[in-house]
Design a protein that fits this description.
Structural class: alpha+beta
Radius of gyration: 25 Å
Strand content: 25-35%
Number of helices: 10
Number of strands: 29
């Protein structure tokens, strides 16, 4: 029985793998002498670090929050046979150079996506040694999300993340193998489209043939089977997903209420029938679409109740301290009545996405921002973003892509053509890979081309929200702002921001309030960071929380919301939970407020807002 939540890559699992998380030798290289002195041959250990936690964190065993530009890692591992092994890094921030037994394997630049190296050329039976050099700057040209680039924390930016911050692991696999699966559900046709990529196209001469075999099952029952010739570097085919056990449509649909997952096994054979590779995967059958200004899930209107989740922990930074910790966060999210989350400025551990698939929790994937706009930033951002989309494409829980947030890294997008063209290019590249999911090009304001018009607004009172966004005659009669004035850029909607960049216009997209609230509340101290005036107690919090939600929930054209935020983070005290995941308020009251549906015409302005 597969335990997918334990595997760093739950979407593509081979049987023989081992984790390299745990204790590694570690040293700082502040003088940048490691390459000159060949530390990959003679490693000068000065510390021991627990991977995948970065040296800045408590769980690393070091806990030094100052910036060190260059760090080195080394550890040994045992191999019992002479089969090829593949070494994987789930995430290393920022530029990694890797050696095996003193032999250089290669370089990878980018902090958020998985990369790998085949080891067979330099692998020995018995003990082998991996050495890693990581260089990470404070440059704003590299995607850094919420990592500070100054000496100390400021605003809503926190301690930087340096080096290995996600799992490291190896697996046994042939040099010619299944390298990637792209799984696209076609719910209306009861089909799953499967695209398979081989590792090495150069070993596909005309004289050789490969065969691909696929088997889909649901709860142990084989649903569909395929076997065919592998003509090129990639092969595409479909499987029928209908089951005799499902009396409704035949296909077991995935949704927050029914997070059904199919199992999938793919095998690769050579022309003689020898099994070269076998991988286990899974998929969910769901459809995300937009019609008439509404977001639809499986052809039914979806009202999104999201919470902004930054994925920070006091003891481990942006690295989840454990699988149990990820599960606890998701349980709290569900307990509070949210049906999804926006993972803010972070590309999360893929096991987290599997848990969302399993539990039926919707996810918006958001790319960590750069903070300057130039050719270097464009190149690095684009490379990483496209790889993130590819790696997370198969997760049914992922329903929205968010490449940019609040004009960060695209300065001048409101009126300058170059950043506008960049956002349009990223939009179209993303849609070329994934034509199904919505893409929000600049979440918050100054949208260029987006499938959903998302607005950020941290007004403190429900009345201010209702006045600004309601189309109801009770407000319009007094000349207050309304939807048409906002979407036409006739007015600025939030402290000086327009909904659209100049030259772009509203085309009937669904509208969501994708950041609001952020109510500052702490029982420990005052003066920490949050939105608006800090409330004094839980009762004040619930009153304010209830009224701003009432205003948003009562407006028919608003298709959902995302509340800021799940937990406190370092200097931020605007979470529903403390940084160590203790409840700050009655979560059942939060749930009641989230799950109600209101009708503006039945509400009294003076009482409800």
């Amino acid at each position: 029985m597969l335990n997918r939540k334990e595997h760093p890559r739950p979407q593509l699992i081979r049987k023989k793998w081992q984790s390299l998380d745990g204790k590694w030798d570690f040293t700082f290289d502040d003088e940048d002498i490691g390459l000159l002195k060949h530390w990959y041959n003679s490693f000068p250990k000065s510390h021991e670090i627990v991977v995948p936690f970065t040296y800045e964190t408590e769980l690393s065993g070091i806990q030094d929050t100052s910036h060190h530009k260059i760090v080195w890692y080394q550890r040994a591992f045992e191999i019992e046979n002479d089969q090829n092994q593949v070494l994987y890094f789930e995430g290393v921030d920022f530029e990694a150079k890797v050696w095996l037994n003193g032999n250089f394997l290669g370089t990878h630049k980018g902090g958020y996506e998985r990369f790998s190296f085949d080891l067979k050329t330099y692998l020995t039976k018995g003990t082998n040694t991996i050495t890693v050099r990581v260089e990470d700057s404070l440059s704003c040209e590299q995607p850094r999300g919420k990592q500070r680039w100054l000496k100390d924390n400021f605003g809503c930016w926190y301690v930087q993340t340096t080096g290995i911050w996600k799992s490291v692991w190896i697996e046994e696999a042939n040099e010619q193998r299944i390298n990637h699966l792209k799984l696209t559900p076609d719910l209306d046709s009861d089909l799953i489209k499967i695209e398979t990529e081989l590792k090495d196209a150069t070993v596909l001469p005309e004289s050789k043939s490969y065969f691909i075999e696929a088997e889909a099952s649901f709860k142990g029952e084989i649903i569909s089977y395929y076997k065919g010739l592998f003509h090129h570097n990639s092969s595409s085919f479909t499987l029928d997903t209908r089951s005799k056990e499902n009396a409704d449509s035949g296909t077991h649909r995935w949704s927050p209420h029914t997070p059904n997952l199919y199992d999938l096994t793919i095998r690769l054979y050579n022309e003689t029938g020898e099994l070269l590779d076998e991988v286990d995967s899974y998929f969910g059958m769901r459809k995300i679409s937009i019609e008439n200004g509404q977001i639809l899930l499986n052809n039914r209107q979806l009202y999104q109740r999201l919470i902004l989740d930054q994925g920070y922990w006091p003891e481990s930074g942006i690295t989840p301290p454990s699988i149990a910790a990820m599960e606890k966060d998701l349980e709290k999210i569900s307990q509070m009545g949210y049906n999804g989350l926006r993972k803010h400025q972070k590309i999360e551990d893929e096991r987290f996405l599997y848990l969302c698939d399993e539990k039926g929790i919707l996810v918006w994937v958001e790319m960590p921002s750069t903070y300057v706009f130039n050719d270097v930033a464009i190149e690095q951002f684009t490379k990483e973003w496209l790889e993130v989309v590819k790696q997370h494409y198969n997760h049914p829980a992922v329903i929205t892509w968010v490449p940019f947030n609040e004009s960060w890294g695209i300065k001048g997008v409101n009126e300058q053509s170059r950043p506008q063209h960049f956002t349009e290019g990223i939009y179209h590249l993303t849609k070329a890979i994934d034509s199904n999911r919505p893409v929000i090009t600049n979440d918050g304001w100054e949208h260029t081309i987006s499938d959903i018009l998302t607005l950020h607004d941290y007004e403190e009172t429900g009345l201010a929200f209702a006045k600004r966004y309601s189309d109801h005659q009770d407000f319009a009669a007094y000349g207050y702002s309304n939807k048409e004035k906002i979407v036409s850029n006739e007015i600025q909607f939030n402290d000086g921001w327009f909904a659209f960049a100049k030259g772009f216009e509203y085309k009937g997209q669904p509208i969501m309030i994708s950041e609001f609230g952020g109510i500052a509340f702490t029982v420990d101290s005052e003066g920490q960071w949050g939105y608006g005036n800090q409330v004094k107690n839980e009762n004040e919090f619930i009153v304010r929380f209830e009224k701003i939600h009432a205003a948003i929930q009562s407006i028919p054209y608003i298709a959902g919301f995302c509340y800021t935020q799940l937990t406190d983070v370092e200097q931020e005290v605007n979470g529903l939970l403390t940084a160590d995941r203790q409840d700050k308020v009655d979560l059942e009251k939060v749930r009641e407020i989230n799950e109600r549906r209101l009708n503006f015409s039945e509400m009294k302005i003076e009482n409800n807002f």
